[in-house]
Amino acid sequence: MDLKIAVLSGDGIGPEVILQAKKALSAIGVVYEHDFIFEDALIGAIAIDKTGSPLPEQTLNLCLNTDAVLFGAIGDPKYNSDSNIRPEQGLLRLRKELGLFANIRPLKPFKGLLDVSPLKREIVEGVDFVIFRELTAGIYFGKKKLNEAGTIASDLCEYTEDEITRIAHLAFQSAQKRRKKLTLVDMANVLETSRLWRKVVYKISADYPEVSLDFLLADNAAKQIISNPKQFDVVLTSNLFGDLLSDEASVITGSIGVLASASLGEKNALFEPVHGSYPHAKGRNIANPFASILSVAMMLEHFGLTEEAKKVCEGVEKAIEYNVVTIDLNPDSKFGTNEVGEFISNFILNKDDLMYF
Ligand code: IPM
Ligand code: MN
């Protein structure tokens, strides 16, 4: 298969972890005879520094005309909330322009990492759910206002029936292939948008009679997701709640450094680690590349390359088995971002010198 992939490494640890993801993808290309063509482009703080814009037109055009986008991380402390122009605006605009309305974040702890989580083993073992976060609407994209005196601010949270419908179908279809349970997380006791979500999702559930539908208020969901995460199969929620809950859920897996995600639209697809730019770790060879490498696995799966995706996941499992992990997973580890990435690409290439580690 030929795939043209836009690589947007972004800020902080982005370039370091994405380098390892590219290595894994190149190794897959060699072994399975695919032609993956990478094209690098600027986004985020580095793009502001070089071009004045967090999403240069060149980057946007490239992304609109590629098969997939591999995205690193965005954000730099030098652009704080007082700045008019911020790196995050680049990612938000990219999501909107590419129409990436569904952000899919799977949560399944690795067997070898069950004791890394601060949660008790009996809570973590057997957890397997996926969050469907709406990504191009809601409070992130509503009209923002600040009065002249700078004393009153507002962010509008708006959802249309169509915006809810399209992601709800994807979530139900996923539930159908999984354990057939969908939980809609909202604040229907307070918010009008949540009441619309409930109405629309309930209506759509008639098309999926074999999927059972539950409603859960977001405050309660925040508690349940770490006190009893095994109950979840597919969690469907709005942009803001999905962002909060997926960071919280990363505690189950032991590190946010292992969570991958896919953002899908009608035409485009973007794959990115859930973690941020982690500026303190930049350039120190300590960032966990698993999340980026697993995002590559999601990309392969998206294009129907199931065997290839499996191979990448096995590489990560092997690294865990050999304890070739970064310090977020093992504080005594002598391995860094590069070594972990190298181990996984060697595994994919079937090199037999893994014992070197
Ligand atoms: C994420 C990030 C982004 C978000 C930021 C960087 C805009 O936290 O992808 O989860 O909040 O959506
Ligand atoms: Mn987030």
Structure description:
With 357 residues, the chain is an alpha/beta fold. It folds into two domains: 1-101 and 257-357, Isopropylmalate Dehydrogenase (3-Layer(aba) Sandwich), CATH 3.40.718; 117-253, Isopropylmalate Dehydrogenase (3-Layer(aba) Sandwich), CATH 3.40.718. It contains twelve helices and twelve strands. A ten-stranded mixed beta sheet has the order 2-1-3-12-11-4-5-10-8-9, sandwiched between helices. β1 (2-10), α1 and β2 form a beta-alpha-beta unit. It starts with a strand and ends in a 9-residue tail after the last helix. The relative contact order is 0.17. The model has no long low-confidence stretch (mean pLDDT 96). The site of 3-isopropylmalic acid (IPM) has 7 residues, from α4. It catalyses: (2R,3S)-3-isopropylmalate + NAD(+) = 4-methyl-2-oxopentanoate + CO2 + NADH. Catalyzes the oxidation of 3-carboxy-2-hydroxy-4-methylpentanoate (3-isopropylmalate) to 3-carboxy-4-methyl-2-oxopentanoate. The product decarboxylates to 4-methyl-2 oxopentanoate. Its EC number is 1.1.1.85. Homodimer.
Which features characterize this protein?
357 residues; binds 3-isopropylmalic acid; 41% helix; alpha/beta; Isopropylmalate Dehydrogenase; ten-stranded mixed beta sheet; two-stranded antiparallel ribbon; 2 domains; binds manganese (II) ion
**Distinct small-molecule ligands in the complex:** 3-isopropylmalic acid, manganese (II) ion
* CATH architecture grouping of the largest domain: 3-Layer(aba) Sandwich
> Cα-atom Rg, whole angstroms?
20 Å
What sort of overall outline do the alpha carbons produce when their principal axes are compared?
Answer: globular
Order of helices and strands: EHEHHEHEHEEEHEHEHEHEEHHH
CATH superfamily membership of the largest domain, which one? Isopropylmalate Dehydrogenase
Helical coverage, percent range = 40-55%
DSSP summary, beta strand count: 12
Number of domains: 2
On the 0-100 scale, what is the average pLDDT? 96
**Number of H- or I-type helical stretches:** 12
Largest sheet: 10 strands, mixed
Low-confidence stretches: none
- Assign the structural class, choosing from mainly alpha, mainly beta, alpha/beta, alpha+beta, or little secondary structure: alpha/beta
Distance between the termini: 32 Å
Query: What order do the strands of the largest sheet run in, or round the barrel if closed?
Result: 2-1-3-12-11-4-5-10-8-9
